[in-house]
Amino acid sequence: MCCESKRRFLLLYATQKGQAKAIAEEIWQQAGAHGLEADMHCISEMDKYNLETEKDPVVIVISTTGTGDPPDTARKFVKKIQDKTLPPDYFAHLQYGLLGLGDSEYMFFCNGGRTVDRRLQELGAQHFYDTGLADDCVGLELVVDPWIDGLWLALKEALPLQKEKEGMNSAVDAVSSSLSPALPAVHELNLSSEVQNLKLEDEGARGSDVLSQKLNGINLVAPARDTEPSLIHSVPPISQSALNIPALPPEYIEVQFQDTQGENPHLSSLISEGTTFEVPVTKAVQLTREDAIKTALLLELDIADTAFEYQPGDAFCVVCPNNVSEVEELLHILGLSEKGDDFVCVKVKQGTKKKGASRPQHIPE
């Protein structure tokens, strides 16, 4: 039910398989704890909201489907805003923040969200919070969780202050216009609070000048001219840019090592489906240009000495061995040289506070 003491914002989601809806529902659930009320709708329910007259901030969570298309639930909406007859100030009154979901394994990463974001900008809409692009290839939560954490401060900054006071609705338009020049600063304030929540601890370097410096806002001071770039020193142009440092997500994955006791199982025993074969690569030709976003190769495999059955339409994947020296170096850096032959078991931690925690599908147990 609507609570008069809570400030409202419009929450829209466009989903294909339910992920964007689940994230929108999480935002809706958290809103009350921050003194806000989310008016949530599927973006296809255009009879329940009207962006042409919307005065409150709008939050959009949208996924990508196919080869970079908006989800089916957003097709009607996208078609409407892509109308070439719309004037460039059509959404000049609109303040919004957008979270796009995608997978970098595909060529057009987060293109569903990018399409809507770009078109809203072309029609005069303004960001009250920077766009987030979450990658399912590495884990959506790496972007989604910190993006939601920073959303609340940005919303409170964007909402007209007059709505906190009764009987002053006549002043809302004036204050909204006065807030417009300050919109770019909203995200900076949000990032400042995020940075303040980050803790840098290094027992071996507490006395160093680097760790004793205090973080002011989100701008990093450029090091001396002769300093090489590293994890703690930045050089132009990065040192001259405002960096968005995501908050560390809560730990919810537990890694256990099990001694194989001298066993050296074949790769096929570690793969749950199908059969594996070791075959030589007889030819490799690069099909894409050097400046292509992703490289495509034509590989020819010699399967003359391999007997297996296949049908038209069957698919196969290639498992390439890692360079032995690189593996040994990585184990040494991680302090796991003695665990090189152990089984690695990946499980969800018991008692984790992360909602809906599950083992990433691309990592076998």
Automatic annotation (TrEMBL):
Single GO BP term:
methionine biosynthetic process
The segment(s) forming the Flavodoxin-like domain are: 9-152
Per the entry, which co-factors are needed? Answer: FAD; FMN
Provide this UniProt record's keywords sorted from A to Z.
FAD, Flavoprotein, FMN, NADP, Oxidoreductase
Query: Mind listing the GO molecular function terms for this protein?
Result: [methionine synthase] reductase (NADPH) activity; flavin adenine dinucleotide binding; FMN binding
Task: Answer yes or no on keyword Cytoplasm.
Answer: no
Superkingdom is Eukaryota
GO CC term (a single one): cytosol
Give a yes or no for keyword Phosphoprotein in this entry.
Answer: no
PANTHER family per the UniProt record, alphabetical: METHIONINE SYNTHASE REDUCTASE, NITRIC OXIDE SYNTHASE-RELATED
Q: What is this protein called?
A: MTRR reductase
Q: What is the lineage of its organism?
A: Eukaryota, Metazoa, Chordata, Craniata, Vertebrata
